[in-house]
Specification:
Blueprint (H helix, E strand, L loop, with lengths): L7 H25 L3 H4 L4 E7 L4 E6 L2 H4 L3 H11 L8 E4 L13 E10 L2 E11 L28 E5 L2 E2 L1 H8 L5 H29 L1 H24 L4 E9 L10 E10 L2 E5 L15 H14 L11 H5 L1 E4 L17 H20 L15 E6 L4 E5 L34 H7 L2 E9 L13 E8 L4 E4 L23 E6 L2 E4 L5 E4 L4 E6 L13 H9 L5 H6 L5 E2 L4 E2 L1 H12 L1
Parallel strand pairs: 10-11
Antiparallel strand pairs: 1-2, 1-5, 3-4, 3-6, 4-5, 6-7, 8-9, 9-10, 12-13, 12-16, 14-15, 15-20, 16-19, 17-18, 17-20, 21-22
Helix pairs in contact: 1-6, 1-7, 6-7, 8-10
Length: 585
């Protein structure tokens, strides 16, 4: 490389141009995909990697989908080597056999980027498909015999060669999924997005030259590594432990599956070790290592200085070592099922790491987010006489509190880290035969604290379609609760019901339920955990929550120790002082 000194403007231009290119990829996918889960909810990740798999630009997406992107890229290079060429595109969704996908519905398209005959970069887009084959629509059947029951397994496969579509291969794949025309549209959109990223990177190389671009990338790696190591060095040396569990694995019912983590800090190096975690299970909550790597590193990043958010790359990963024993639920072996892993077990991985680091660094404490309450519901839409599958993140609670801030309201699953949206109600009703009856935040349904979790959600909808089935998939939280940090209260438990006439039927996570025409589905999803002692919450903030109907007058008095005159919207100061004085004494 050139010894020419890099000026700050050039570094910033190249770095942010790469970030912008990956953001443009998602914009293209948003505008051209037909699947609501991708185009509206943004269950999609895009990024840019070096030829050796080093992570360069990952500004948008889900940690579980792309922070482990180095692993499939390295295996892709190992498999194809010098046989890769300009214009190639590769597809994979297999968690095993070199694919390193977190579960089968997340398909990834990889495009090698060549410049003057030299392989310099890879771009990837990974998104959750409308269907991926398997026993039931959607890919979340909780009791599959093995990974093949969950859908078609695609190892790294060349689907475009030198710019020429390998139509027979793609048709073979599409023939093995439901809603194949829709999946085809989405796949073309994803492939097109990788081409746009390639064009943008080639423009950079043309404008600045190969050596300057690569030197700027190396410089950003080094800068990020120094910044992350400085953050880690602020944590007192030692070992910090935590654990989190899911309600069950979907096959062995009502038996927790435990994640246990030990986070060791040694100077400016962090080691996240899952040695004592449960062995892999028969049920579908297992994670492959790449998924665990993405969730664990994503959780650690959440505790760093937020000003670093736009700069995480391979330099970040140099400072974090992640250990997960082979054969465990966080590093499972073929042919273990993995359908629920990204959200269900991924959530527990992130919770455990956040809990451990909240003990290590109280000033950056983060409580658990509300548990995921998703499902896959499928039947026939009488308006079109066509099959449909419905999934959404609308039912999730909200974020956990952070030291100094209440939990953000309305964000979805922790493993999405805010990247996935809730759906538009009118769009949902236009696409699917379900009419929304109620969708609102709920009073006293979050973890209380000096900073409370984001509010819980109550969601109801009526089935105006045919009889069908509902797989409660990667839901959780009927038994286990998300942790509160530094004296904050945990998130409440959740519930899902079917109201059928005068009968109310409770549906637990990881189950398959029959759905009848006219059934009303009710989801009660708690908010996140709290941070800090609730009795230390600013009384004015408690009053505001009472006025906004997020906290009841009774909870204000009993939990927050604040007496409220709701009629006059005032704090009863003397009574509040007495309540808090009694508590202190």
């Amino acid at each position: 490389m050139s010894d020419k000194k890099l000026d700050p403007t050039t570094i910033a231009t190249i770095w942010h141009s790469m970030q912008t290119a990956t953001k443009e990829m998602r914009y293209i996918i948003d505008r051209t995909c037909q699947n609501m889960l991708i185009s509206q909810l943004h269950d999609v990740s895009c990024g840019l990697w070096g030829a050796d798999g080093s992570t360069i630009a990952v500004p948008v997406g889900l940690p579980v989908q792309f922070l482990g992107g180095e692993f499939p890229i390295r295996d892709l290079v190992k498999k194809y080597g010098d046989d890769m060429k300009l214009g190639d595109v590769f597809l994979s969704n297999d968690p095993y056999h070199g694919g390193h996908a977190n579960h089968l519905p997340d398909w990834a398209f990889f495009r090698p980027i060549f410049y003057e005959g030299e392989l310099l970069f890879f771009t990837m887009t990974r998104a959750h498909q409308q269907d991926t084959g398997g026993s039931f629509p959607g890919g979340y059947f909780p009791n599959g015999h093995d990974i093949h029951a969950e859908g078609i397994c695609i190892p790294p496969t060349r689907v475009v060669e030198g710019g020429e579509e390998q139509t027979e291969i793609l048709e073979l794949i599409w023939n093995n999924v439901r809603f194949s025309e829709g999946v085809k549209i989405d796949n073309y959109a994803m492939i097109a997005a990788t081409k746009v990223c390639e064009d943008r990177v080639i423009d950079l190389l043309d404008n600045f030259g190969r050596d300057t671009v690569l030197a700027c990338v190396d410089e950003m790696f080094d800068r990020t590594e120094r910044a992350v190591r400085a953050e880690i060095a602020k944590i007192p040396d030692g070992e910090y432990t935590a654990e989190a569990a899911t309600d069950d694995d979907g096959t062995t019912l009502d038996e927790h599956v435990w994640i246990r983590v030990k986070v060791a800090i040694d100077g400016d190096q962090m080691t996240i070790d899952f040695e004592d975690t449960d062995k892999q299970r028969t049920g579908f909550v297992n994670c492959v290592y790449a998924a665990t790597y993405g969730c664990a590193s994503g959780a650690a990043i959440m505790t760093f200085d937020p000003s670093l958010a736009d700069f995480h790359n391979a330099g970040t990963m140099r400072a974090i070592d992640i250990k997960a024993p082979l054969g465990s639920v966080v590093n499972c072996e073929y042919p273990a099922t993995v359908g629920a892993s990204p959200v269900n077990m991924g959530n527990q991985i992130m919770e455990a790491v956040l809990d451990a680091l909240s003990k290590a660094r109280p000033d950056r404490a983060i409580a658990a987010w509300g548990k995921h309450r998703g499902d896959y519901t499928f039947g026939v839409d009488p308006r079109t006489n066509e099959r449909y599958v419905r999934t959404s993140f609308d039912y999730d609670g909200s974020a956990g509190a952070v030291w100094g801030y209440d939990g953000y309201q309305g964000v979805t699953s922790l493993t999405a880290m805010g990247a996935i949206n809730r759906g538009d109600m009118e769009e949902m009703e236009a696409r699917l035969p379900w009419r929304i009856l109620k969708y609102e935040m709920v009073e006293d349904f979050t973890g209380e604290g000096r900073w409370r979790g984001g509010p819980g959600i109550h969601w109801e909808a009526i089935n105006e379609g045919s009889d069908g089935q509902m797989a409660t998939g990667s839901s959780d939280g009927d038994v286990v609760q998300g942790f509160g940090a530094q004296g904050g209260n945990p998130s409440p438990i959740c519930r899902t019901y079917i109201d059928r006439g005068d009968e109310r039927i409770r549906i637990k996570p990881h189950r398959m339920a029959e759905i009848k025409e006219g059934d009303i589905i009710i989801k009660q999803s708690s908010g996140g955990g709290g941070v800090g002692d609730p009795s230390e919450r600013d009384p004015e903030m408690v009053l505001e929550d009472v006025i906004n109907e997020l906290v009841s007058v009774e909870a204000a008095r009993e939990i927050y120790k604040v007496a409220i005159d709701l009629e006059n919207r005032t704090i009863l100061g003397d009574e509040t002082k007495e309540l808090r004085a009694v508590l202190r004494n």
